[in-house]
Task: structure prediction
Amino acid sequence: MNIDWSSLGFHYTEPEYIVRAGYHDGKWEEPYATKDKYLHLHVSATCLQYGQEAFEGLKAFRGIDGKIRIFRWRDNARRMAKSAEGLFMAPVPEELFGKAIRLALDKNIDFVPPYGTGATLYFRPLLIGTTPRLGVGPGRDFEFIVIPSPIGPYYPGKFHCTTFIVNRYVDRAAPYGTGPFKVGGNYASSFRATEPAHAMGCDCIFLDAKYHRYIDECSAANFIGIKGNEYLTPRSSAILPSITNDSLMTLAKEMGMKVTRRHIRLEELADMSEAAACGTAAVISPMNKVVDTEKGVTYSFGDEPGPVLSTLYRALKDIQYGRAEDKHGWTEIIDMT
Ligand SMILES: Cc1ncc(COP(=O)(O)O)c(C=O)c1O
Result:
């Protein structure tokens, strides 16, 4: 295999195998690996007709010791089970989820990027409803698929800041809608806001859909603000519970910070010394500016990532790459040496 790891972008590279398991007559089949990347799917499948689809995203890292570490896969399995319940789908049992990730890793072991390249093996677990149905309603048959793909570092150069634009014209998710579930519809409906922002080299901040007053989250990441010695992150029924945010909150507490999850008014950005988006893709994406075009206000945090977020960023990456002790049992080590 001939992959130039250093020039690998942050996008899909075809793996050799994907892993699949079907659910029929109330039972999951054993996961199996296949080279076939196409599905033979009925045109009336509930995933196509009614958006019965949920997904996940997690990574395996080649550590400094040559060992491969899969980060917090059980949390992704639990979150996917919640997404499945949210869309009336059969949840994938945790053990089956783990088995499928392991099989996808074993069958694509040459796709795990070497240590030092910043590249990782990303897994995209996907759950879809496959029962043909034209009357509105959920399916009874499902397909669980794990798609692995090596991806390049989010920051190919140095850790840097991004400008975020406040969006008020597209609501990502309603207060009691599908926001806390990782389902395709949330993303499709946000493209109207995210694509114009991305075209300007920026990202978006979504506000709560009811009042447009509080920060909800970013397009594919939670929000973090640093105010004095406090780590602030939004409390909202419409946002995805980020596993990265949960990890960073734990590390922040260990660093002696006060961690607060509460409603955060947009104007509070003015009192914060640092702000960022956080998620599996980038770990932390610091904000240099948040631009509220409608109100004509710009919140500035400086052009370089701030000291608190930089420390948290390094602390989490050190655990993922085996450079620091994993006191919380977040990584599962796969010893291939
Ligand atoms: C909407 C949304 N919020 C937050 C996150 C961050 O979650 P995690 O840290 O588990 O990747 C993601 C990415 O998965 C996301 O798509």
Q: What stands out?
A: The chain has a mean pLDDT of 96. The domain at 162-320 is CATH 3.20.10.10 (D-amino Acid Aminotransferase; Chain A, domain 2).
